[in-house]
Amino acid sequence: MSPPSTLVWFRNDLRLADNPALWEAVERGAPVVPVFIMQEAGEKYGSPGGAGRWWLHYSLHSLDADLRRAGSRLIVRTGDPLSVLRQVAEECHAEAVFWNRRYEPAAVACDAEVKAEFRARGLTIESFNGSLLYEPWQVLNQEEKPYRVFTPFWKACLALREPGSPLPEPAHIPAPEIWPVSLPIEQLHLEPKIGWAQGLRAAWTPGSEGAGGNLGVFLDEALEGYETGRDRPDRQGTSRLSPYLRFGEISPRQVWRAVREFSKNEARTRLAGSAQAFLRQLGWREFAYYLLFHFPYTPDQPLDGNFAAFPWREDREALTAWQKGRTGYPYIDAGMRELWHTGWMHNRARMGVASFLVKDLLIPWQAGAAWFWDTLVDADLANNTLGWQWTAGCGADAAPYFRVFNPVSQGEKFDPEGRYVRAWVPELANLPGRWIHKPWEAPERELKKAGVELGKDYPYPMVDHAAARLRALELYQNLKKPS
DNA sequence: TGAAATGTTGGGGCG
DNA sequence: ACGCCCCAACATTTC
């Protein structure tokens, strides 16, 4: 009989560095068995959507390769986590199971069940914080209740101890004498059968190495000027770390530390503001997890109960036009097509397309959230829920009901030369900048010259924004009235 | 992490 | 030189 081992259950922490569960498991000295369990056919949002599955495929390969360099390997299984863990634990005589905590409601329940059962069987179970800077239960307001507004929340976080140094990568991970059986990653069938992943492949390199690469490029090229640069979807002004953070190929603590070190080494005053603005974005991620933990019903239900009765419209056709980037508003369509092709959308554009779906089309935010879940490589239940509820005005720190983005002026403001539109809506590429965000106002002559026939090559606007805005304002205002 | 409507100001053209 | 108008620029209010 082989000596007892320690299971490390990998979930949203697909990295070796700054991985507390892995680190502590190695410290125990016993052989370590890294396990990943793919749970199929769970509940809604229980496993990644299409784009996330594509990402996961490569991320698992990358993790396995990293583990092998450290003398270990990844054991892959499918099924219900509790029964799979039971099985693997038996196969390799595990006496301990370590993992980094999750915060999604279903995941919290699952982990609690596993913990209870294994403890009852006398195994050592330890969980760690591998994906947040602050635990959700650490931060409460004066009344001991969760914050619902970002700024005071983040101030309270910053008043706590600054996030510590990331843990190093274990140089060597002790292996068991005999490895339990593992499914080939291919057999998880995470890669789409049809070729829609072409664009994703061109845009991304999943895995910790890719994460470090994006972080390095961001620090060198975009941190300075981040405060305004981040608002430009036509430029590389953001870190593009979201999918890596989603799957834990990099930890927020690593990002935090890298930014602090970088802005310390460079001229401190020059970068202080940008660094703070960027770290504040990590704060929004913290806030999203915090809210999801404290208000677990929010992926489906509005945080603000007044919205339960909001008269959303059911309109399959309009939803499809939005999904396919055929709304007739170039800025909106550019965003939706960037999403479809790359699995990612600039945050400025996300706010715009979300506002359009919810306020111009009056389609429920849950429908938008579901589409994002399926198409974003960074689809993260906490962030997705916060973002959509914020836009719809029914969530924490919500956009005031009267805040309706104008798809034309947002385009003109944040994509002034129309480069973003030209990149993703090529049928408009030859239209002069003056009309690029509102082709329906272009003179017939200009359209002809640009080779655009409206209604044929590119649609007319599916709604009149001015009218749609008034319609939304009226409905939202009714909601505010005490009933 | 808006936009539009409305109000105010001040410079320049012009009688 | 003066007052008047126009209007852009900016500020404030409202949705």
Lay out the secondary structure.
Elements: E1 5-10, H1 20-28, E2 32-38, H2 50-69, E3 75-78, H3 81-91, E4 94-100, H4 105-120, E5 124-128, H5 150-159, H6 198-203, H7 208-221, H8 226-229, H9 242-247, H10 252-265, H11 268-294, H12 316-324, H13 330-342, H14 347-360, H15 365-375, H16 381-392, H17 407-414, H18 419-424, H19 444-449, H20 465-480
Parallel strand pairs: 1-2, 1-4, 2-3, 4-5
The chain binds a DNA duplex (15 and 15 nucleotides) through residues 231, 347-348, 351, 355, 390, 399-406, 409-410, 466, 469-470, 473, 476-477.
Overall pLDDT: 95
Record the strand order, biggest sheet.
Answer: 3-2-1-4-5
Integer-rounded radius of gyration: 24 Å
For the largest beta-sheet, the strand count, sense and barrel status come to:
5 strands, parallel
- Derived from helix and strand composition plus strand pairing, the structural class reads alpha/beta
Unreliable stretches (pLDDT < 50, length at least 5) are none
The helicity comes to 40-55%
Helix count from the secondary structure assignment? 20
Number of domains: 3
Number of strands: 5
Percentage of β-strand residues: 5-15%
N to C succession of SSEs: EHEHEHEHEHHHHHHHHHHHHHHHH
CATH level 1 class label of the largest domain: Mainly Alpha
What's the end-to-end separation, in Å? 70 Å
- Can you tell me the CATH architecture of the largest domain? Orthogonal Bundle
What is the name of the CATH superfamily of the largest domain?
DNA Cyclobutane Dipyrimidine Photolyase, subunit A, domain 3
